[in-house]
Amino acid sequence: MNWERRQKIESNELKNPVTLADIIHQELSIFCWCTSCGHNNTIDPVPIKNILGPLFPVPKIGGRMRCSLCQNRNITTRPAWPNHGDGQIARHT
Ligand SMILES: [Zn+2]
Hints:
By secondary structure, this protein is α+β, with helices and mostly antiparallel strands. It is 34% helix and 15% strand. The structure holds zinc ion. Zinc ion binds at residues 34, 36-37, 39, 67, 69-70, 72.
């Protein structure tokens, strides 16, 4: 069943959050979003990995960041999953 499989994947993600090594391996960026002012950005995970280490969980990176606009520390971070269909994927040029 699809549904059961999905539940399994979701609970697995909670126990094993995606790490910097994972998204670098998948050539993804980090999507950062300030929950205070709505400012958002995608950043290169490689320099972050050099600071925090490859096994640092991506959702926890936000706790180490500060918004460049409002200086707030309420930052949400997640892998910048490719957006299917709208061509807004940030790729290395
Ligand atoms: Zn902000």
